Amino acid sequence: MANWKMQKLASEAKQFIEAFSQKELPSSVDIAICAPFLCLPSLAEQKIIPIGAQNVYPADKGAFTGETSPTMLKEFDVTYVIVGHSERRQILKETDDFVASKFHYCVEEGLTPVLCVGESLEQREAGEAETWCKAQLDAVFKEYEGNFPDDLLIAYEPIWAIGTGKTATAEDAQAMIHALRSHLETLKGQEIADKARFLYGGSVKPANIASLMQCEDIDGALVGGASLEAEDFYQLILEGSANHE
Ligand code: PGA
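That is the input. Now the predicted structure with 2-phosphoglycolic acid docked in place:
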């Protein structure tokens, strides 16, 4: 899954999708592009690659200057919405509660949220990474009695690995994602935990995706920098699909 962040103009998105849709894509992989809002209309015109937004406001309509509702996204056939990305938690000061309300509202509205969790370097060095990420899951799932999306997507993105070129080792990523899946099982039962798809994110590139995809609990990747050029993203998908167990 591509996360373009605030990196592309609508005209560039159009060029990307024209180049990308010429490629022969492996049928065994689910591909999606999470793009800036203004890119979504042009991406929606192609019907091949599902699209996602990078934010949403948890209300249908109203006096929320600058915000975008699920209904507005659905008009452009948006399937996914990234919620709880560390950049929004850190820069936009989104709280666990706000992230949880976005997640729940997306589910009610039939959008598939991609919940991001991840620890800082200080937390990892202090041995607190697992506790922190589990607490981020608690905030969304512990008290939640509502429906679950058919496709429950959770991305483990250690903050220190995002955009830094430093990837978590496959062993560390697997260990954390395994711990998160077990925690989800404790919270919501085995069926939901087994079915959930966990993505790893943080400096994923064609050179390191193979070892990540070979890990038992890792089902996919959330990719920033390496998703911006059609050719790089295509190579990454080929590498990932060839090595996914
Ligand atoms: P990156 O970003 O691949 O550029 O590290 C990943 C993300 O923030 O989702």
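Residues 3, 157, 162-163, 201-204, 222-226 surround 2-phosphoglycolic acid (CB under 6 Å).
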